[in-house]
Amino acid sequence: MKNIRIIPRLDIKGPNLVKGIHLEGLRVLGSPEDFAEHYYNAGADELIYMDVVASLYGRNGLMDIIEKTAKKIFIPLTVGGGLRTLEDIKNVLRAGADKVSLNTIAIKNPNIILEASRRFGSSTIVVSIEAIKQNDGKYMAFIENARESTGVEVFSWAKKVEELGAGEILLTSVNNEGTGSGYDIELTRKVSELVSIPVIANGGAGELEDVVNVIKQGKADAVSLASMVHYDYVKKSMVNGSLLKNQAEGNIDFLKFGKISEKIETSGIEEIKFYLKDKGINCRK
Amino acid sequence: MTNEKNKKVVIVDYAMGNIFSVKLACQKVGICAIVSNDKKEISNASALILPGVGAFADAMATLEKLDLVRTIKEFIASGRPFLGICLGMQLLMSESEEFGLHKGLDIIKGRVVKFPAVNDKVPQVGWNQITKPSYSNINWEETLLKGLSEKDFMYFVHSFYVLPNNNNIVVSETNYAGLNYCSSLREKNIYACQFHPEKSGESGLLIYRNFYNLINK
Fold first, then answer.
1. Would you tell me how many other CB atoms lie within 10 Å of the CB of residue B137?
2. B8-216 belongs to which CATH class?
3. What ipTM does this complex have?
4. Which of A20, B26, B94, B107: CA 20 to 30 A from A134?
């Protein structure tokens, strides 16, 4: 029986877990390892680490975070952001990641999907598609955290990455990302019906019903969440102030004042799964 | 002399997939594991783990190129504990239908076949439950699943599954693509599972703990 996966997505900048809106305007939320361990214990099915400014910073910090995490959490860990070569992929896997997520390099050199899936196995290669809906209704793929357009249309690209050997697609609606306005159902459904590999819906969850909708109507095989679960953990941790202790840099005003987007109803992993089960959606308890 | 308290396990390194995750899980439960494709290391190991992710034919070709087929067969024949994971389970079988017909290690009689493309997406990627086969009265307490309950969840990534000739070696079944298939098996000293215990949270780590106890008993 198919079970839907709930996958927290942790955007990482330097040593910090961050969160933005439309992949921009980053806020510091805490240490990624703390959040990862919390989600593991709460019953997350997998985790995604996305190095959001990979091209601008050194990589050693990220490797260190992956190594520390992999020693503590025993669920699949996908790492993405700035991976450019087979050597980069190998290094991330050796640090303890189970899968890698490729976007920019996959668009610039699609053949890397073929090479990487042959060398590391299809199940190790996740292709991330950052989709922006255009005024004419077309969905186009973007790279570099959605800063750069590519001229590549999302649906034909999804089909192509499957043919090249990708094991999964991480599908982000950049329009909806971080807004809490719900997933892009149309986008998700179309891609999911087009390919036989699993599609992870990402971007836009604001309330529990959004998660239900993207599974039932959007046909998502897995759901990635950031703000909804991060802010839930932040709220619960605010009480003892523990999240503030290791913050030395970045925009931490949010942590000091605790203001959370009003559009996002926060929920923990357990609450999400309880809700899904109640709506007749199978998932790991 | 081997330290009785800390017997050495070799994780066979044949460039197929998630070897590091397997090693980390071993470390977590106190298993002293090394990653190697050295014939001597393998022959002298207290126990062997054959992991694997990827294509069946490539994996067999690599084992042959590294000249490990006989080493692995001899190790298993010696009666020491052996654990095959995912592709490492499938390789034990006589043959696989993955992209044409390919010979396996032929240690366990049976075939590797593909999920039918109905109902569910293939590959299966994600968590699924393990249950006792309806046709047997196997006691999990005597297997590596000791301490686990019916319907516990494990993490799977695969398009193919094993179909052993002998039903009695099936330890657990899992339901996907409209059928119940063998998700773990045991034959004498051979243990094998289709799921990834190293990625299956605390339930999966329990299997590694049981493996530790088996090696150190």
1. 7
2. alpha beta
3. 0.93
4. A20
Whether residue B204 contacts residue B154, with contact meaning beta carbons closer than 8 Å, is answered with: yes
Q: Label each residue of A75-90 as H, E or C.
A: CCEEEECCCCCHHHHH
Of the given ranges (B15-19, B86-90, B133-137, B166-170), which has the lowest mean pLDDT?
B15-19
- Mean pLDDT confidence for A129-137: 95
Q: Does residue A88 have an active-site annotation?
A: no
Chain B residues with CB-CB distance to A196 below 8 A = 117, 121-122
- B69, exposed or middle or buried, with CB in 10 Å at 0-12, 13-18, 19+? middle
Interatomic CA distance for residues A154 and A134, integer angstroms: 11
Catalytic residue among B86, B102, B173, B193: B86
Residues from chain A that touch B198, judged by Cβ atoms under 8 A, are 74
Q: What value, to the nearest 5°, has the Cα angle with vertex A248 and ends A243 and A253?
A: 65
Separation of alpha carbons A92 and B60, rounded Å: 26
CA distance A22 to chain B (A): 28
- Say whether A16 sits in a helix, a strand or coil: strand
Domain A5-125+202-212+222-278 has CATH 3.20.20.70: yes
Residue numbers in B near A124 (CB within 8 A): 17-18, 53
3-state DSSP call for residue B211?
helix
Rounded to whole angstroms, the Cα distance separating A238 from A253 reads: 13
Q: Are A166 and A122 spatial neighbours (Cβ–Cβ below 8 Å)?
A: yes
Distance CA B52, CA A115 (A): 18
Looking at the predicted structure, is the pLDDT value of residue A218 above 60? yes
Q: Are A117 and A89 in contact (CB under 8 A)?
A: no
Q: Which pLDDT score, from 0 to 100, does residue B119 have?
A: 77
Spatial separation of the C-alpha atoms in residues A202 and A32, rounded to whole Å: 19
pLDDT tens for A74-92 read 999 999 998 999 999 999 9
Whether residue B86 lies in the annotated active site: yes
Q: At what angle do helices A227-238 and A32-42 cross, to 10 degrees?
A: 100
Residue A254 has pLDDT above 70, yes or no: no
Mutate to test the interface with B, among A46, A68, A72, A284 (most CBs of B within 10 A): A284
| Residues whose CB is less than 8 angstroms from the CB of residue B88 and which lie 6 or more positions away in sequence, other chains included | B12, B49, B50, B51, B52, B192
